[in-house]
Amino acid sequence: MAKTDNEFNINGKLGNLIFFQRNGKSFVKKYAGGFVNSSAQQHPNTIEVKKRFKELSMFSASFKKNILPFNWKQKDGTFHNQLVSFFSTIKKETNQSTMYTALVEAYKNGKLQHRSLNKKCKLSPFYVQYNAQTNELKIQAGLVFQHKSKFPNAYLEISIGWLVCTEELELNLINFQTFYVPIDTLATPLSEIKLSPQIQEQQNSSTTFPFVGISIVTQDDEQAKLFHPFHYTLTTFL
Question: What are phi and psi of 99, to 5 degrees?
Fold first, then answer.
């Protein structure tokens, strides 16, 4: 809707015309309809952008569903949008034409590893290392050293699994396994936790990404083996 402050100055849309002021002068131009205009919607560039966003959104939704066993403690309604932004950044950084090749390239160059997928995460992924040659997961004391005094009787819930991704971006979580280790195991700055999880042969025409989720948890009854999570959760590619 157009507005006027006097008989000479009009700002806004009136019919199919747009009135605006610039450098003290009045201008008018025909309204083209913007992004909702049918010709703009059918433009090849618009169609390509919508196609790419749809691919990113669908992949992010599938990814979120598959990592739920790692990340169920996190209650964040913006997580899907965070994943879309994360994978969009990965694709731009690798300059690959497809999401699959972007993931493979990013993992090969170490751009997926050590990037926390949790907003405002208090556990740094740089203290978690995985050696695929020896199949050894190593967690250094720096991960929890500043939090250990807050939760002296807590445990580390360490979950590891492998995300199988096909060229069609179909995801499948395999070999999911969880370990509970007393947080006092990392009592000194040089302490380490070393785990050797079970692995499975990679499937044909697919790429397998090791993935880890770590949370600080506690239990009220040691015999019941029921663990209660805190808001200290880390999920990341290895």
Answer: -65, -35
Number of Cβ within 10 Å of residue 52's Cβ equals 14
Structural contact between residues 19 and 10, judged by C-beta atoms closer than 8 angstroms: yes
- Of all residues in the chain, what percent are helix, strand and coil, respectively (each to 5)? 30, 35, 35
Structure-derived torsion over alpha carbons of residues 114, 117, 121, 122, reported in degrees to the nearest 10: -30
Whole-number Å distance between alpha carbons of 148 and 144: 6
Q: Mean of the pLDDT values across residues 170-174?
A: 92
Rg (CA), the chain: 25
Q: Which residue has the tokens 């932004």?
A: 85
Give the Cα separation of 141 and 217 in Å (integer). Answer: 16
Dihedral sign (CA 146, 152, 154, 159): positive
What is the reported pTM?
0.73
C-alpha to C-alpha distance for 136 and 114, rounded to whole angstroms:
16
Q: Please state whether beta strands 155-166 and 206-219 pair in parallel, antiparallel, or not at all (unpaired).
A: antiparallel
Question: Where in the chain does DSSP place strands (E)?
Answer: 3-4, 10-14, 17-22, 25-30, 128-131, 136-140, 155-166, 171-182, 192-195, 206-219, 227-237
The average pLDDT across 84-111 equals: 88
User: Closest Cα partner for 158 from 120, 188, 130, 189?
Assistant: 130
Q: Grade residue 130 by pLDDT with cuts at 50, 70 and 90.
A: very high
Confidence class of residue 164 from pLDDT cuts 50, 70 and 90? very high
Report d(CA 147, CA 63) in Å as an integer: 29
Q: Any idea which of 107-116, 210-219, 227-236 has the lowest mean pLDDT?
A: 227-236
